[in-house]
Design brief:
about 0% helix; seven-stranded antiparallel sheet; mainly beta; 1 helix; about 280 residues; ten-stranded antiparallel sheet
């Protein structure tokens, strides 16, 4: 049984985006789009409503990976009992949980591809983790799992890393099943945000280090209580992705993802370490 990630403790240090007043400098590994290959992008633009998330892939997607289909659980598939829990409309992927009294506490979607095109890569997407929670009172969440050896992985139960974004504006970061860091609420702005995850590595052998950085709306967000970035000494063995949403019993939420993008470089250590000031 999956364990619900814990709420951030009030005693933890608050790493807030508006720390420019104290001049906090953090480091972020970055590389420009011109230096990297567009492997995959899905803009989810169809012009029609559909519960078949694989409809119109050729018109929605671009990149060297070609057309990439999606996997999901049998129950939310187009022929399952809850196909409306994963939808494409208004140019976005919509993920529903516990809708209209139908209990399903988590819903997931995964591109059916192992993105090992380069050990230095970025994942980008737009996310709204509080579509129905205008007051941002809930700590329920939407998340991404990356660097995993399989699809359909839960945020704190994979062999990759998991990053969740709570409706109340907090984030929580997992290395496999280990909780690395939890921020305070209101760490990220309300509404739809632009998420960028930057990974700098040497390969997918599971024996070389990989360093991860997070930016939200272009601003660095810390992944540990001491450092902006996080390094896993053994890196990754694969790079399957999972997008998912969660709601506690009795809560009915929806989450949106858009412009899911993967870029990569194959050269080792081609990223440049830059100092960025949190704003």
């Amino acid at each position: 049984m999956m364990i619900r990630p814990r709420k951030p403790m009030k005693t933890q240090p608050r790493i807030f985006l508006r720390l420019a007043a104290v001049g906090l400098l953090i480091a972020s590994f970055t590389f420009t789009q011109a230096q990297s290959e567009l492997v995959f992008q899905d803009n989810f633009n169809l012009g029609v409503y559909t519960t078949d998330i694989n409809e119109g892939l050729a018109t929605r997607q671009s990149g060297s990976a070609g057309v990439v289909s999606y996997l999901e659980s049998d129950v939310t598939g187009s022929e399952g009992g809850l196909p409306e829990f994963t939808e494409v409309f208004e140019g976005r992927l919509w993920i529903w949980v516990n809708d209209n009294g139908q209990a399903q506490s988590s819903t997931w979607v995964s591109p059916n591809r192992n993105f090992v095109d380069g050990p230095t890569f970025t994942l980008e997407f737009k996310l709204d983790p509080s579509v129905l929670d205008e007051g941002r009172a809930s700590d329920d969440w939407a998340a991404i799992v990356f660097g995993a050896t399989a699809t359909g992985q839960f945020v704190n139960a994979s062999d990759g890393m998991g990053l969740l974004f709570r409706s109340n504006g907090a984030i929580q970061f997992f290395d496999g099943g280990t909780a690395v860091y939890s921020s305070e609420p209101a760490t990220i702005p309300a509404g739809e945000v632009q998420v960028r995850i930057e990974v700098t590595g040497e390969g997918f052998t599971g024996t070389t280090p990989a360093t991860v950085a997070l930016l939200v709306n272009g601003n660095p967000v810390s992944l540990t209580s001491e450092n902006a970035t996080y390094t896993r000494a053994t890196g990754f063995r694969a790079n399957y992705l999972t997008l998912l949403g969660y709601a506690a019993p009795g809560n009915e939420w929806q989450y949106t993802f858009d412009d899911l993008t993967v870029r990569a470089r194959s050269e080792e250590h081609t990223s440049e370490l830059q100092s960025r000031q949190v704003i």
